[in-house]
Structure formats: C-alpha cells, structure tokens
Amino acid sequence: DAGVIQSPRHEVTEMGQEVTLRCKPISGHNSLFWYRQTMMRGLELLIYFNNNVPIDDSGMPEDRFSAKMPNASFSTLKIQPSEPRDSAVYFCASSGQGQKQYFGPGTRLTVT
Amino acid sequence: GENVEQHPSTLSVQEGDSAVIKCTYSDSASNYFPWYKQELGKGPQLIIDIRSNVGEKKDQRIAVTLNKTAKHFSLHITETQPEDSAVYFCAATSGGGADGLTFGKGTHLIIQP
Fold first, then answer.
1. Smallest Cα distance from B36 to chain A, Å
2. Looking at B15-85, which runs of residues are DSSP E strands?
C-alpha cells in the first residue's frame, strides 16, 4: 500500500518567493496533519483537517502560512512570502477514524 | 496546552542491553501516547502506542508503560540491536489520535557494537 506521499522532497528557494508543499494522504484516511521539524523547536503541529475541514490552525506561525484541503486526497501548505527562518523539514501525516498517525517522508525546505 | 518533556536527549547502550526512554506530560486530559522512531532523512515511523485505559503494552522487544497518576510514560527496548539506532520521539494528545500530537524533543539512541 502507498503511504503518505509528499512533494517535492527538496525545495530550495530565495527569500520572498512563494513555496507550495503538497501532500496526498493514505487512501481512506479522514484526518490530515501538517508538522514542521527544526533543530531548535523539534516537531510541532501547524494545522490539521478532519474530513477536509480545518480544525485547528493555532500552530501556523504567521499569516504568511496557509493550508488547504480541497478534497480527501490532496492538501497544500503554502508560504508566501518565504523567509530564511522558514527553513525546516515539513511533514504531512494522516490517520483514519481517530487512530494512528502515519507520516510522509517530508519536504526539506531551504530558503536563502 | 500540552507540554511533553523527554529524557534523556542522548542514550548510548551496548548491543544486547536494554534501553529506557522516559516522558512526562502536563495535560491530564491526554489519552493517547504514541512513540515514533526516526531514521536520518526519513519521516517518523510509529512503533508502538498506548491509550489511557491501559497501563502497559508490549510488541516483541518493545514495551510502553503508562502511569496516569504521575503523568509519565516510558519506552523500553530489550535486547537492543544495531538497527535500533535512531531518534525516538514520544507524543501525547487528548483527542485519542484524532487531534494533533504534541511531541517531546527526542532521544538519540546509539547502540554500541
């Protein structure tokens, strides 16, 4: 079975540019989570969706960050404009019926 | 909100010995406690989890214990092997898995041959 799919795996961009990260959850899962991992702050929750509806976005650091889930099989996390402090690994995870969360391989973002 | 503390940050054990990683949480409403293993360049992999209605759970060489009164839970790995070397994260949530997880800072486990 395919796990959580994220693209791109690596992204290098210049400060001020728009960045879009993509996630395809495991088929049949109804919850989707976006996390960010840095050395300083560890793994932190940014936002999560249940049945395509955003439930808690309190972890989104600034208005520059936005996330959408237009359907059950696709979500995006957008940063506009990007800044060097946004450099991190961004993970998407999904779960079904409130059970175990499975993580994707992550997108390593570098903003220069 | 929830706060999860994890210790130690680094743990080095001889191959074949046991390893124990401990976590504490602050929110008494938390009811789901998963453990993840992360290898270099990969996403966190769920290895075991426990819910608040259970005190202990075991899966082969891995076990997790939960003390709700003291608000702490631990990961036990027995007969450690080189492939157990990785960073391990504990997490907690009050949503039974449906809500976002709050993670500890991680433990770098090193298995010495």
1. 10
2. 19-25, 32-38, 45-51, 56-59, 62-67, 72-77
Q: Give me the residue from B43, B49, B100 closest to A103, CB to CB.
A: B43
Say if the Cβ atoms of A103 and B45 lie within 8 Å. Answer: yes
The C-alpha angle with vertex B34 and arms to B9 and A11, in degrees rounded to 5, equals 70
d(CA B2, CA A4): 26
Distance between CA atoms of B57 and B62, rounded to whole angstroms?
9
Handedness of CA B24, B29, B31, B35 (dihedral sign): negative
Distance of CA B5 to the CA centre of its chain: 11
Burial class, A22, CB count within 10 angstroms (exposed 0-12 / middle 13-18 / buried 19+): middle
pLDDT digits 0-9 by tens, B24-34: 999 999 999 99
Q: Which residues of chain B have pLDDT under 50?
A: none
Given a contact cutoff of 8 angstroms between Cβ atoms, the answer to whether A73 and A5 are in contact is no
CB atoms within 10 A of CB A24: 18
pLDDT given at position B53: 87
- Residue contact A103–B104, C-beta within 8 A: no
Candidate from A48, A95, A103 with C-beta closest to B44: A103
